[in-house]
Amino acid sequence: MKIKTVGSICSGIEAASVAWKKCGFEFKWFSEIAQFPSSVLNHHYPNIKNLGDMNNIPKMIKNKEIEAPDLICGGTPCQAFSFAGLQNGLKDERGNLTLKFVDIINANDEIRLKDNKQRTVVFWENVEGVLKDKTNAFGCLISYLAGLNNIIEIKKWPNAGIIRGPKRNIAWRLLDAKYFGVPQQRKRLYLIAGGKDFYPENILFEKHTHELKEFPKFELNFEKYGHKYEIFREYTDCLYAAYGTKWNGNAAATNGSLFIVQDKRIRRLTPLECERLMGFPDNYTNIKNCRNTNRYQAIGNSWVVPVISWIGQNLINVDTSQSIIDDTNFAFATRTQTIENSNLIVCNDDIIGNINCSKIPENPIFKSMETMVEADADEKLYLSPVGCYGIIRRKNERNLHINKRLETVLLDNSSKMKFEDIEKQSKKQKRGKYSNDIKIENNPNIFPYSNLEISNA
Asked: Which range of residues forms the domain containing residue 416?
């Protein structure tokens, strides 16, 4: 099927529009309700209508108020399925928007079939946590999308798979962004679906021809723009939407992957560096009257542009009229289950026969953190001595593992202030539950650095 027109659900800041710019796709409409992402859309795409609330879209399509496009893409809210969210799945109204997404696809198909057009090509993205969501949200989604009468119940869904349903064929694959040209470990689930004459596995799966490559070692110390930099790992943890406000409470605060040392001072990533880690053009979110917290949140909620670009190139270049999986392939035959006259193929292994459905693509692209950093970081992004010592305190209160080099840098930066002053400043904010009823200064097991000689050098 030749794709020309696209509709976007839960558009955010439109990674798809950036990624598919060279694919020749024409975006007909967006759907975004959050204020800042909507402002970004209006800034970059003033001639494309933002429909707002996605709940209104089925009616608008059926009434032909908007075009029924060839492809509809979306990443319905992931908070209900992520480790960072409440994990309430379909009990959460945000999780139920996943099923509303299918209502939109069905309405779009209704109009397209009446106009003698092929069914909609569907692209959906979400966090890997949706695969083991306790409400079986993913099972609900793909069962509904495939056209089944009953929900497929699997406690933990595989990282890759195929469904040949009565209404649609579906394929999904978990991919890690750090193999696509950004040094960010960001595992996300990508799903493609279409009509019965469309084989979506051809888009997501690959013929396996050579040994897969792991992320290489890069220098952790380097010079750029006349500054000396140090990082704590070759790639970052997943950028999260709350990075602008909760940077010191995440796992990255102890492994150091979302920190940078610039000229011996430790700081957080800048919004520009976050844009680069997601594959966006520089200053894409730097619009009039924007705040850093707005940018961090919008970037962290978006898609990684190079991964979406890879999928887009496959959508225009790969033949989907016949499956790349041979019906006689024994490796796939043993993974096939029949459900309601449909086939479910569980592809949880990295390589099955001669097909790659792992998180690593056949031809990965690797980039170092050196390509991501900038020189002009805002002064307020640097960690204060109090902030540095706060991470050390939290580590000891909770008995957490910490990157040893990070610990050294944090202690070195905290030594710029007297311990008594650090304690005085830190107590201005309420401490967490782990600090309750603990007298830090008198408990060297919790705060072993309180006896260190701290200078003002």
From this structure: 383-457
